[in-house]
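Long-time lurker, first post. I've been practising inverse folding by hand and with some scripts of my own, and I keep getting stuck on stretches where the structure tokens seem ambiguous. Below is the full token string for one chain I'm working on. Before anyone asks, I'm not after the true native sequence, just a reasonable design that respects the backbone. If someone could post their per-position residues I'd love to compare against what I wrote down in my notebook.
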């Protein structure tokens, strides 16, 4: 099967069932950005039927049972509605594709300004923004892993003569912040 991850399949099923984009994202665990890209990609190149099957849900039946089941079921195939398909394409898919392109252009322009106007490496900015969006426990786990891997790979910040001349002390590459006091949830 080449239909993608379980998350992606769950998202596609939710959209096919007519659920809103936000509901489909919440149920599947896909981010909004990834969901929009998936919708655009699926519109440009519709996925096969097996891309909607949940991984592990396909049950193996022996040939005789499958044949008997097919003979008992009669499925009526409706007449294709090409006009409605074109209408959906023009009113829903095409505008969504245009918006995805606009958003991508806006992001690209903003990251160029971060690079040129702010003199900040765009990759570092993307990582910092991703970290900012994480919940505290996941961020702490990620940063501890990153710091450990950097240490094991002997990756660190090189001494900067300008910083030394200006009297700035060497800081850890990953700063340690004072932890906030844990709050307890009331139990009812």
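-- Answer (accepted) --
I ran through it position by position. Result:
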């Amino acid at each position: 099967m080449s239909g993608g991850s379980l998350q992606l399949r769950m998202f596609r099923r939710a959209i096919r069932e007519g659920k809103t984009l936000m509901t489909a994202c919440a149920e599947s665990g896909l981010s909004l950005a990834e969901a929009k890209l998936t919708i655009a990609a699926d519109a440009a190149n519709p996925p096969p039927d097996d891309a909607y099957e949940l991984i592990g849900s396909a049950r193996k039946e022996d040939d005789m049972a499958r044949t008997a089941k097919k003979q008992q079921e009669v499925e009526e195939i409706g007449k294709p509605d090409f006009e409605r398909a074109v209408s959906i394409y023009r009113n829903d898919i095409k505008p969504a594709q245009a918006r995805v392109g606009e958003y991508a252009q806006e992001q690209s322009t903003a990251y160029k300004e971060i690079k040129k106007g702010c003199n900040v490496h765009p990759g570092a900015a993307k990582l910092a923004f991703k970290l900012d969006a994480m919940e505290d426990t996941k961020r702490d786990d990620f940063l501890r892993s990153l710091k450990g891997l950097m240490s094991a790979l002997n990756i660190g910040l090189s001494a900067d003569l300008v910083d030394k001349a200006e009297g700035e002390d060497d800081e850890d590459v990953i700063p340690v912040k004072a932890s906030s006091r844990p709050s307890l949830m009331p139990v009812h």
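A couple of notes from the structure itself: Residues 58-62 have pLDDT under 50 and may be disordered. The chain has eight helices and no strands. Happy to go over any region you disagree with.
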